[in-house]
Amino acid sequence: QLPAMAAAFAKRLLDAFVDAGLDRQQCDFDEAAGQMIINNDITRVVPIATLFAQYSLCADEAARSKLVDGAMKAFVEGAADVPSSIAETGDRLLPQLWNKQKIAARQMTLPAGFELPHCGLRGELPLDGDLGVVLVCDYGVDGLSIETPVLSKDLSRWGLSFTAALGKALENLRARTKKGPSADRRWEHHPTGCGESCWKDRFDAVRIAVFPKLVATRKRPDGVAEQGGHVVAFATTSCVLASMSKNALGLCFMGDTLNLQISLRDPKQLLTSIPMRLMKMKDPQSGSARHPLESTASEGMVWRWMPYSPGGPPLQSPGEFSVPVDQGEVDAILEAAENGRAVPVFTQTPKVASAVSAPTFLKMKEQGNSLFKAGEFMKAVSAYNAALREDGVPPADAAVVHSNAAQALLKTAEADPSVCKPLAAEALKRANEAVGLDPTNVKAYARCAAACDLLEEHEAAAEFRQHQARCQAAAEATQQARRAEAEQRRQQQEEQRKKMAAAMEEKARCDALLERERELERRRAKEDAGDLGQAEAARLSSMLGMDSTLAGMPARGVGGN
Asked: For residues 130 and 494, is the Cβ–Cβ distance under 8 A?
């Protein structure tokens, strides 16, 4: 939740909005998500946590009042709304990097039928990582920096697909990058060799993600050549850290900054705590149309971002070091380096969830499901708890198990009035835990609402059901968008096939025409050769005084009987 000062800032904003004529009942402050939703003719989302970060940097009350006035113009008067045409966006249309939790939370605020278009770092859907790319319109209102996300309705008004709009946004970001720091000033290096991005314009992270060459060409100012591959931490939108996989102290500084400073000081601004490895990989679409986020590394090769683990797949490179996740690991690395001992490598990092759940987790989860089906609800809860004790469980999988445990508790509470209230309270706690791990889990919201019903917290139940409806609508809109995107790709591929078939047909026609011309040339050559033979025979005949027809006859032998 937001700290007390941020909550006070949110109240000040709300009071300013009401003074400007907004009905207080139209404002829904979601403290857990750090945002305020204004349900007016146009639904607007006020990013309280982001605005408070700017508010806290104001030098005096005059600056703070100016920021509040700017927020009022942006979110009450609509100064920061997305323009009605693509031409009006100018150079303000930009890509931005959000984590999937923020994407899911924003989807839930949208009315039915609306969607937040997005894709993964290479254009994929659904996201196969923790980060996604969205489109925003960047505004400055009275010194206040605001990014308004582009929604599906905006793309419809513009008559553009998400991919086409993303292409324009990338052009704008490329132009902004060139106007920024020169190549030798794009990274500020710590003595350990770890570099920190220097644009500081809230687009550092997406810039590095979509233009990976900015990392590949990074050089230390001291000229020291480093071994290993590129490792990057997308800490916040304005802070990217980069080091090499065999630079133990550089990775130590990265982990300290990422996990002990940013994560603790400003957790709502954290993009992801999972460091990424930049790799060159064979281009799977060589020779075909590519997504604008597919970045060419060299002939037949493309750049790819993958979660980093020392010596991990796909390279299995020896001699790599880990990015520390807590103070103990940082201290162990520094102590080893200071005393000339081998630097420890920590392969089990609790903050980095494995991509696939452990077999024991899956076994206990299935055991819990079987017990639930058999009506052994409390035994099912015990099995679910055992599954969650396993290390490295992905958040989405853990959310499912917490939600299942909540349902088992609800079943028991409904069957036994003597323990109804305490079990309902525990069910609410478990379902809330599921929502925190995966904001897109529709069943978890339904179980929160059911628990509130048993606790006679009817207003809270209604609120959870509203979240459930929004989540369900967002999921359906996402599926619809995916189907539309798939249909668009199918049509593009079909059009490409037709063009290729037409081109091949034209080539065959040209080849046939060329062959006919060659055949005519061969015939003319033969005829010309025959004409020359007759002309030569006539010339010889005239020299010998013979009839030309005789000169052309074959000679006979002379003899007698």
From this structure: no
The kind and range of the H/E element at 544 are: helix 458-544
Dist. CA 309–CA 295, nearest whole Å: 23
Alpha carbons 202 and 239: distance in angstroms, whole number: 8
Longest Cα–Cα distance of the chain, Å, equals 145
pLDDT at 470 over 70: yes
In sequence order, the 6+-apart residues with CB closer than 8 A to the CB of 331 are none
Which of 107, 95, 176 has the alpha carbon at shortest distance from 137?
A: 95
Query: CB within 8 A of 491, min separation 6: which ones?
Result: none
The length of the chain, given as a count of residues: 561
Contact by Cβ (8 Å): 202, 145: yes
Residues 277 and 215: beta-carbon distance below 8 Å: no
β-bridge partners, 133 = 97, 119
3-state secondary structure of 436: helix
In the β-sheet with 27-30, what is the strand arrangement from edge to edge? 27-30, 35-39, 43-46
Strand partners, 277: 231, 306
Q: How far apart are CA 348 and CA 391, in angstroms?
A: 9
| DSSP SS3 for 36 | strand
More confident residue, 561 or 424: 424
Between the alpha carbon of residue 560 and those of residues 54, 553, 554, 555, 557, the distances in Å are 128, 21, 19, 16, 10
Whole-number pLDDT of residue 540: 61
**pLDDT tens per residue, range 223-256:** 888 899 999 999 999 999 999 999 999 999 999 9
- Tokens 């980060």, located at residue: 131
Helices 359-373 and 395-415: crossing angle, nearest 10°? 20
Query: CA gyration radius for the chain?
Result: 35
Comparison of pLDDT for 264 and 459, the residue scoring more: 459
Rounded Cα distance between 471 and 103, Å, is 12
d(CA 147, CA 9): 19
Name the DSSP letter for residue 90: G
* Under 8 Å between Cβ of 110 and 470: yes
Dist. CA 357–CA 392, nearest whole Å: 7
User: Cα separation of 140 and 67, whole Å?
Assistant: 11
In angstroms, what CA-CA distances link 119 with 108, 132, 155, 329? 17, 5, 15, 34
Q: Which of 200, 254, 255 is nearest to 53 (CA)?
A: 200
Written as six digits, the tokens of 345 are 């490598």
Query: Where does 144-262 have alpha helices with state H?
Result: 152-158, 162-179, 204-210, 213-216, 248-255
In sequence order, what are the residues at sequence separation of 6 or more whose Cβ sits closer than 8 angstroms to the Cβ of residue 283?
294, 296, 300, 301, 302
List the alpha helices (DSSP H) in 56-95: 61-75, 86-89
**Cα 64 to Cα 68: distance, rounded to the nearest angstrom:** 6
Q: Tell me 262's DSSP state.
A: I
Who wins on pLDDT, 421 or 481? 421
What does DSSP assign to residue 72? H
